[in-house]
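Usage

Read records sequentially. Each one opens with the input sequence:
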Amino acid sequence: MAAFLSATHRVERHHEVEASAVGERLERPAGIGITLTALPGQTIVVEGDPIEGWFRIASGAVRLSKSTPDGRRQVIDFLSAGESFGIASERHYGYSVEAIARTTLVRYSRAKLEAAIEAHPELARRLFGMACAELQRARQHLLLLGRKSADEKIASFLLTLAVRLGVRGARLDVVQLPMSRQDMADYLGLTIETVSRTLTRLRRDGLISLPTPQHVVLLQIGRLHDLAEGG
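and closes with the structure output:
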């Protein structure tokens, strides 16, 4: 199943390259990006804030979350280097964004971004592609929440992270976990106890190893893929 990770990696890598290419295209002619640094736990955007620009992540990782009416938190995505947020036609953010590692971001104001698109129309195509990738991730997350068991959710999550948040330059079966177990639980719609028990069971069954709390090695990618698909 290495082919599964390789093919998925090509798709995700394409969107990461798109984000970097857009950033470089914006910065070369006008230097319009403002570089910001956020420490772990620092809030970058609060749900309901006006969308006044677009953020590209240069390094680190962030968590996107939304509050439910009863006060609970639903994590809706994790983003890492090369990915972005704030590309939307809405006027206000529908989620909050917090750093889960030391994170460097580049912020582009909406006015300057629109001016750059007018001067370089190819940027619109690239931004549209990135927005489509964001929508696709949202659809996959809905499927994950609504149709999968706890074991299937954890297996799917690890396979996806192997591509999106894996150790850069390392093997695709080495997964870095910048998020906490509680973050994972809030993303997958599980309790933290269920996440911990499931990871322990996958380790006991020889599908993964956990050299540190922040790293997972996928030992049986084929079996994990079968599990993720309900096998």
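Summary fields computed downstream for this record:
- Residues 1-19, 166-170 have pLDDT under 50 and may be disordered.
- The chain has two domains: 13-144, 148-228.
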